[in-house]
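Hi R.,

Here's the chain you asked about this morning:
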Amino acid sequence: MPFTPNYTITLSIAQNLVAIEEGKKQFESTPINTTLLSSLRKSARLVATHYSTQIEGNRLTMEQVTEVVSQKGSGFSGRERDEKEVVNYYKALEYIETKNNKPLTEKTIQIIHGLVLNGRKSATPYRDGQNVIKDGVSNAIVYMPPEASDVDLLMKELVSWIDTSLENGKIPVPIIAALAHYQFATIHPYYDGNGRTARLMTNYILHYGGYGLKGIYSLEEYYAKNLHGYYDALAVEDIPNYYMEREQADLTDFLEYFIKGMAIAFSNIVEKSKKQVTSISNNNSKLLRELSAKQRMSLDLFLQQKEITTNDLAIHLGVSKRSAAILIKKWLETDFLIIGNPSNKARTYLLNDKWEELI
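And the predicted structure, written out as tokens:
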């Protein structure tokens, strides 16, 4: 039976969908330069990595995660497995951000899982036997996923439903992402790494569907800080076995949990980006006053390309190549520019770090 999710759009879900759209609209109208965007994106990746692995029992702190990912620290005693999980999850997030411009495929999911489990971009096959989900305290079985023989078909149907739903646009993208997350967790196609892969797949869907906010927000923090709600929502009516009509369960509660979390995440990132943009704008005003008119004009050129040549500057400013060379010599002496490529035949120049935030 094809995946046909059963749910109701409640008033709460409808209100939060409106809040998500409003947050998306506000974010898209907030001017964020490339330097700030890069910083926010890296911060979001670190937060997502910390909280998603923490859900699975990872013991590294946020500070330790940052050190491990930046390779400034490692070898935390007794934490080798935790370190590997963190590095692998971060790799998977980077992969998603570079590959989310194409419809989701089973192979993409399998590669995401390969990165999560092994840190390699190699597709991992689905499980070939039965797995179970146990209570972390009592060790009692709380859910029995479908048999291995059914996993291939169930995953094909899920991916087909996701891509068809995104293409026809009849279901809001956040709803598609939420339902896909639920169904992946229900199928539990792997022995290990299902939770992390489900959350990464959800991110992929949101990015592809236009709700990625350029990779600067994280739903994983919401899950981790509302963990009982996360597991309770996934449990849907406490159905302990896939074949006990779990595919017909009412998924409204999980939708409410997921959409509320997404609305909160969008609201938080809009406020955060606005504050940082305001702060940078205030600093920028001071920095801009230090620049000459021609230096300010040259900033537009650096918006278009990272490295420039003497000829690029001459054309951009409408001056002779000789005049541009004189300006560049002066700007190197005052640390406005630094040399990129030192070759005499192909010399290029970069904007010094101090001025990067202006673009």
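The first helix runs from residue 11 to 28.

Let me know if you need anything else.
M.
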